[in-house]
Design goal:
Elements: H1 3-20, E1 24-30, H2 31-39, E2 50-57, H3 59-62, H4 65-75, E3 80-84, E4 106-108, H5 112-121, E5 126-133, H6 138-151, E6 156-162, H7 165-176, E7 182-185, H8 187-193, H9 199-205, E8 209-211, H10 216-232, E9 237-239, H11 251-260, E10 261-264, E11 267-268, E12 272-273, E13 278-281, H12 290-293, H13 309-313, H14 345-351
Parallel strand pairs: 1-2, 1-7, 3-4, 3-5, 5-6, 7-8, 8-9
Antiparallel strand pairs: 10-13, 11-12
Helix pairs in contact: 1-10, 5-6, 6-11
């Protein structure tokens, strides 16, 4: 987007905020949006009456500690090999992290296919893939499961931490933070689920939902559309990411998700148990479920003492309002997951020196 269009979007935001005549709070659901807002200096360009709130769109951040503790326990077994995305390595559990509590049985992977390759290479180990992420990373996990079936890779299984976004948005407005005026919706997730997936948020709660990509101009244009809707009191679903996001999403990816996974009322860090917002393997694929394979009937969860990541994820506070931020909790010595992940709000606020 050209400088002229960026300036036009900024002018539209200011005009709409003036017309609204009240403070506006917009939640950027996606952690990549949070980082982009800082990287491009967008926050400093916005009117004082407009506040951007970081949301629960960081998959590492919303993974409950109980799941982390189970993964660490499995990493201490000689017969297991943990395959995980890099951001999960340093997330603190009750007694440490994968970085500190393992026996050399942890491998960082960049895709579910990489995890499958480890299973082929190490037939004497059970490879446990830590499958986290929203609708963006769920279809590749399904593809890996299909391939494991086809090859008869009995030493491959997953711990499913996949979650879905829209029920979490509804949960926020229903019980956690009804002060959110609108949502800047995630680009990558929306490629899979489609812009129409946010219609229930508009119809049930009357909140504008606008999908945007991650370039500065597109983010500003998305914010401008939101502010205009609020000023005109005409909430709707819009997308400024038409090159990648279709109204109905990606039907092939959605079918893959539906084939292998089902929704359940699973825990989210900071948001608690959200009805229908987590995914688990269907019964017919239970042989790939690491929790069942290793006999974990329940996964107890708890939060680190003093950590306010949950309130940050709900948009109730900014990271510096946590007493641990920048003191006991830093990127070198994180207490909570929002300081660990590259998409975490606390990490972004710390990196860009925001007090």
């Amino acid at each position: 987007m050209s400088i002229e269009r960026i300036l036009t979007a900024r002018e539209q935001i200011e005009a709409a905020c003036d017309k609204a005549g009240r403070p506006i709070q917009i939640m950027e659901v996606c952690g990549t949006h949070t980082v982009s807002l800082f990287r491009h200096g967008i926050r400093s360009m916005l009117p004082k009456s407009l506040k951007m709130l970081s949301g629960p769109g960081c998959p590492v951040c919303v993974t409950d500690q109980g799941m982390i503790d189970v993964v660490i326990e499995l990493a201490q077994r000689d017969d297991c090999l943990i395959a995980t995305y890099g951001d999960m390595i340093r997330v603190p559990g009750a007694g440490g992290s994968l970085e500190t509590q393992h026996r050399g049985n942890v491998k960082v992977v960049f895709s579910s296919d990489h995890a499958l390759a480890l299973a082929r290479k190490h037939p004497d180990k059970t490879v446990v893939f830590v499958a986290v992420g929203f609708e963006t990373t769920t279809p590749p996990t399904a593809v890996a499961l299909r391939q494991a079936q086809a090859e008869g890779l009995d030493n491959f299984c997953i711990i499913c931490g996949h979650k879905i976004v829209v029920p979490a948005m509804a949960a926020l407005l229903s019980a956690r933070n009804d002060k959110i005026d609108a949502f800047l919706c995630p680009g990558h997730v929306s490629v899979i689920i489609g812009a129409d997936a946010y219609t229930p948020i508009v119809e049930q709660f009357g909140r504008p939902c606008v999908v945007a990509g991650f370039e500065a101009g597109q983010i500003l244009e998305g914010i401008a559309r939101i502010c205009t809707q609020i000023a005109d009191q005409k909430p709707q679903v819009e997308s400024v990411y038409g090159a990648a996001v279709k109204n109905q999403g990606n039907p092939v990816a959605l079918q893959l998700m539906d084939e292998y996974f089902e929704t359940w009322d699973g825990p989210w860090r900071g948001l608690g148990v959200i009805p229908g917002a987590s995914l688990r393997l269907k019964d017919e694929f239970s042989r790939f479920d690491a929790l069942k394979r290793f006999g974990f009937a329940e996964v107890p969860t708890e939060e680190p003492a003093g950590c306010l990541c949950g309130r940050v994820l709900c948009g109730l506070i900014d990271p510096p309002q946590c007493g641990l931020f920048g003191k006991k909790c830093t990127p070198d010595s994180p207490v909570g997951p929002c300081m660990v992940s590259t998409e975490g709000a606390c990490s972004a606020w710390f990196k860009y020196g925001i007090k």
